[in-house]
Design goal:
Distance between the termini of chain A: 44 Å
Helix content of chain B: 55-70%
Number of helices of chain A: 8
Strand content of chain A: under 5%
Oligomer: heterodimer
Helix content of chain A: 55-70%
Radius of gyration of chain B: 18 Å
Shape of chain A: globular
Largest interface: A-B, 138 and 131 residues
Structural class of chain A: mainly alpha
Largest sheet of chain B: none
Number of helices of chain B: 6
Order of helices and strands of chain B: HHHHHH
Strand content of chain B: under 5%
Number of domains of chain A: 2
Chain lengths: 188, 162
């Protein structure tokens, strides 16, 4: 059992497990698997203002999902405390590419050069966390879904909007990886 | 100003129109499923900025294998649920509300904006929260910023193309 927590799970175990959350949530309460709706629910619960988009019954629509999200946080805590901590075993090519940009600490799940409270005070850390977070929130709300809602639930349901959204995810991700991040991480 | 001409946000847990009754008795079930999802996100390493970079640089099959097999598993499950006509534990017939296509602009542009953020943070919304649990507490700032982004969208919504 604990052996499962000493190394990363293979893709053919992790993928189907993630896919099973779609039928699990449907069978539990006819709920559609998708995380980003929670950002809207949280806005609606905390600061709806006079914005039409946030004026709805967030408890009726999203309390189940917010509870699910609290679980995700707890699950992340539990999983990181079981088994032996280890570096992410990324490919040698990726390691070389990132070293070229000035990323040298491969010991955590996210590079410490960008994702610590101290790094937040650097321009590249600020852009990665604050600008990146803003784009995640704006983009998922505009596209009405994220990786879970579109790439998993939507594609599995053969929805054209989700296919367009996923192509957009990769267009943005590739543009950032090849044109923006080399400048942000390498030069700032 | 009327908002009815704009497509409603469906999916991602947001259902337009009549809201279903809150089944509070089922909330522990969602909590347990969420915990399981947080564990899977962590042990599969899909919450890692490094894995996302590896994916966008096409330097490993891993993330494509994970997303691909997740979609196939979910799709097969949906077919089986439809064929058998299973109902949810709450007694509702199972249905995924289809998103309106419109001109598709919101999905193309919104998707691209999210893709930029995905590469910047190395995390989509689920992993952002799982990372906080993993001890990358600076992601609390990313979540607050994501809430600001969602709020900005809500405010700009009537002026955006769909």
């Amino acid at each position: 059992m604990t052996a499962l927590f000493n190394t990363e799970w293979p893709w053919y175990l992790a993928g189907p497990l993630i896919g099973l959350f779609v039928p699990a949530l449907l069978l539990a309460g006819n709920k559609v698997f998708g995380i980003s709706g929670n950002l809207r629910h949280l806005c609606s619960a905390i600061i709806p203002g006079k914005v039409e988009f946030f004026r709805y019954d967030w408890k009726g629509a999203g309390l189940w999902n917010l509870v699910f999200l609290v679980g995700v946080l707890i699950g992340g805590f539990l999983a990181s405390h079981i088994g032996t901590p280890h570096a992410i075993a990324i490919s040698a090519e990726t390691r070389a590419s990132l070293s070229g940009l000035g990323i040298h600490d491969f010991s955590s799940v996210a590079p410490r050069e960008l994702f610590t409270w101290h790094a937040l005070l650097t321009l590249r850390g600020f852009i990665s966390v604050v600008v990146g977070g803003f784009l995640v929130g704006f983009g998922t709300a505009y596209a009405a879904g994220c990786t879970s809602g579109h790439a998993i639930s939507g594609l599995a349901n053969l929805e054209l909007p989700s296919l367009i959204a996923v192509l957009g995810f990769f267009a943005g991700g590739l543009a950032a990886t090849y044109f923006i991040l080399p400048f942000v991480i390498g030069s700032l | 100003m009327t908002q009815t001409s704009l497509p409603e946000l469906v999916g991602c847990g947001v259902v337009s129109g009549d809201q279903p009754k809150v089944h509070t008795a089922f909330l522990p079930v969602y909590l347990l499923l969420g915990i399981a999802f947080g564990i899977v996100l962590t042990r599969s390493e899909v919450l890692s900025w490094f894995r996302i970079q590896e994916m966008f640089r096409f330097q490993s099959f891993r993330m494509y294998g994970i997303i691909g097999s997740a979609v196939v598993t979910a799709a097969v499950s949906l077919v089986l649920i439809k064929r058998t006509g299973l109902k949810s534990a709450t007694g509702e017939p199972i249905a995924i509300p289809a998103r309106p296509l419109g001109r598709g602009i919101q999905y193309a542009i919104g998707g691209t904006i999210f893709g930029l953020g995905w590469a910047f943070t190395g995390a989509c919304p689920g992993p952002l929260f799982a990372l906080i649990g993993n001890g990358v507490t600076v992601m609390i700032v990313a979540v607050v910023s994501a809430l600001a982004g969602t709020w900005a969208y809500g405010w700009l919504r009537p002026r955006l193309p769909y």
